[in-house]
């Protein structure tokens, strides 16, 4: 016998990964491997904020796992959060979020990486402070580029799909409230609208130029309105004369 959802009666609905086809051939980059490493993550989008457990399994790094995903991001033991990060009363045993709508994948605790079983070469990189703007957030954090690399080249490239950042702060653009602080986060490149290097430029000079530009625009608007009013007053008399002239008596036609 089956229940209303098509499953056997008495089945455990707290874990329904099998019903969603999370085995081999399902699009899961882990390919249905046995349970292994997991990470507690937050997914943040324009109108989304949720936290839950991701089964990264054989992947050592969260960035490797996320950049291998395609289609949907799967979380279990999910809690939906409000804009400030406080948990709501809405929980789900499992949630799949369309990856294209995820701007930030944040890690609350920076767990140490497991030891590598493959020989690999460590490439020296240096941290650079970066400010990233998405449709709904402004993000401050460190990116790591090659010792002689260019920050602009790092930003302009399309690979990897998600940019790893450390020491991250996220704020909402609409109200500037702090969304959260994270030791590590991944930012989706396709969600980025603008980038800047923090600590460059002159804030006072920039604000002064903005104030001067707004004042000049307001003065130009007042001058244009005054010129329009003066032009209307100057053209009032000729118009009246023309109208008055049109009312002069015309000679009567002669009768033959």
Explain what you see.
- With 256 residues, the protein is α+β, with helices and mostly antiparallel strands.
- Among the domains are: 18-107, SH3 type barrels, CATH 2.30.30.100; 204-231.
- It has helices spanning 62-68, 151-156, 203-234, 236-245, and strands at residues 37-44, 49-57, 72-81, 87-98, 104-107, 125-133, 137-146, 162-172, 178-188, 194-196.
- A hairpin with a 5-residue loop joins strand 3 and strand 4.
- The protein is built from four helices and ten strands.
- A ten-stranded antiparallel beta sheet has the order 4-3-2-1-5-9-8-7-6-10.
- The longest helix has 32 residues, at 203-234.
- 21% of the residues lie in helices and 34% in strands.
- Mean pLDDT is 79; it is low at 1-18 and 23-27.
Describe the structure concisely for a colleague:
The chain has 256 residues and is of the alpha+beta class. Helices cover 21% and strands 34% of the residues. It contains four helices and ten strands.
Q: Which blocks of ≥5 consecutive residues have pLDDT under 50?
A: 1-18, 23-27
Order of helices and strands: EEHEEEEEHEEEHH
Strand order of the largest sheet: 4-3-2-1-5-9-8-7-6-10
Number of helices: 4
Structural class: alpha+beta
CATH topology of the domain at 18-107: SH3 type barrels
Terminal CA distance reads 113 Å
Largest sheet: 10 strands, antiparallel
The CATH architecture of the domain at 18-107 would be Roll
Q: Indicate the proportion of strand residues.
A: 25-35%
Mean pLDDT: 79
Shape: elongated
- The level of helicity is 10-25%
Q: Can you tell me the CATH class of the domain at 18-107?
A: Mainly Beta
* Number of E-type strands: 10
